Amino acid sequence: MKIKKRLIMSKDILVFTADVEDAGIRLDAFIGMNTEDLSRSYAVKLIEDGFVSVNKNTVFSKKLKLSQGDEVCVSIPQTHDFDVKPEDIPLDIIYEDEDILIVNKPKGMVVHPAPGNYTGTLVNALMYHCGRNLSDINGLLRPGIVHRIDKDTSGLLIIAKNNKVHESLASQLRNRSVIREYTALVYDNIKEDELEIDMPIGRNEKNRMRRAVNGSGSREAVTQIKVQERFSKYTLVTARLKTGRTHQIRVHMAYIKHPLVGDPMYGPKKAPGRLEGIDLDGQLLHAGTLGFIHPSTNKYIEFNAPIPENFKIILNRLRQV
User: Fold this and answer.
1) What are the DSSP calls for 210-242, one per residue?
2) Fewer beta carbons below 10 Å: N end or C end of the chain?
3) Which one is the CATH code of 93-174: 2.70.70.10, 3.40.50.1820, 3.30.2350.10, 3.40.50.2000?
4) Predicted TM-score (pTM) of this structure
């Protein structure tokens, strides 16, 4: 899904132009695929409520199929009065003490509320579990959140229960002393057993939701890659972050022509939605290892979480080919 043109008229209005590859795609699907923080169900609601226009004409049909060159304008209503509510959502807690919480986030869960995802997020679950015992450094919508991973990336996150701990953890992230290792399945065989990708990442000037190597406002980005296993058309790798830019692993792997399997934003346009009979539903990327100095004990601690079951099933089937 390539956006040929993107205009920001205000912080709440997005304008896209459909590319040749978008011809025939439904309006709700187009919006959902091009705005990572807006769910497809929320896109449907925006259409039905009259917040979407095509070629300057308001449309109310989610089933409208786009043509090349169609200009799609999405207006996102203001949510000044929105209040995050605690929700009794089960959490996979790997570790907890009076200062921190280590959570294994499932694939498909949004970390914090955003337009179209005001409920069912990790923050809603944390507020129910921790009550008022969460840091407020990142504001009312992101209590306790020190760092984040994408909706369709599973794995480990550190949650801070107070501001002192939050500041210490944030400092470790800035100093690059936090160990963050991911497991990913990527397309094609990587020849080297180990490599380092040192390429700056910034915003993609054509699509505000995407990032790009040498994009607008680029900042240093370094990813260390180690091959775990090779298959006929895929490679299983460990990716260690030296920096923590948005979509860093996804962008870097796409840049070296080995995009993540299942990645709807940076992967091949005609990639299958299923692999070995399993629905992909997002990139095969798992934050499996997290290590840092505990702010209270000053001792190094490390946590590990196994890859999700659907990831395991796909790998086992690839091994049988």
Assistant:
1) EEEET-EEEE--EEEEEEEEE-SSEEEEEEEES
2) C
3) 3.30.2350.10
4) 0.78
